[in-house]
Amino acid sequence: MYGKRVKVPRLQAWYGDQGTDYTYTQLTMSPLPWTEQLLMLKQQVSNATGAEFNSVLANCYRNHQDSVAWHSDDEPELGETPVIASLSLGAERFFHLKHKVKPITHKFKLPSGSLLIMKGNTQKYWQHAVLKSRIHASMRINLTFRKIIK
Q: For residues 139 and 90, is the Cβ–Cβ distance under 8 A?
């Protein structure tokens, strides 16, 4: 983070088709093979969004103290206008959005089973985060389906 090595404040795993390595914040992940359950979810998310995906980042937020800092998913291997489908399972958490230039912010809860779609210029103009909270929350799994452009 900001040029320094820090522990990731959540558990994570990268799954996908062979050759869909993903690099962000100087961390390169090679995909684990798809599980039957993840392939089933990928198909359902593709059907719901009309988009194709070849990888998924699985994040496990163990409790309200696990988080992901402000960022955009704007890595080159995602292309200019990526479609990212974010499936939330488990505890409800707040999802935060803020514009990169204008003083505009949004904050809303993502209940279990919700599917958030980020597409178009979302990653170009916005940052997003799931911040630490003082409000107790149990475990949450978040699956962000993506398409790596080879």
A: yes
**Quick one: tokens of 102?**
């204008």
What's this model's pTM, rounded to 2 decimal places? 0.91
> How far, in Å, CA of 125 to CA of 97, rounded?
10
Q: What is the pLDDT of residues 1-41, one digit of tens each?
A: 445 555 667 999 999 999 999 988 778 899 999 999 999 99
Type of residue numbered 109: K
Q: Where are the domains of the chain?
A: 11-63+72-93+108-123+134-146
pLDDT (tens digit per residue) in 80-128? 999 999 999 999 999 999 999 999 999 999 999 999 999 999 999 999 9
* Strand spans (E) along 66-147: 68-71, 84-90, 93-99, 105-110, 115-118, 126-130, 140-146
Q: What is the CATH number of domain 11-63+72-93+108-123+134-146?
A: 2.60.120.590
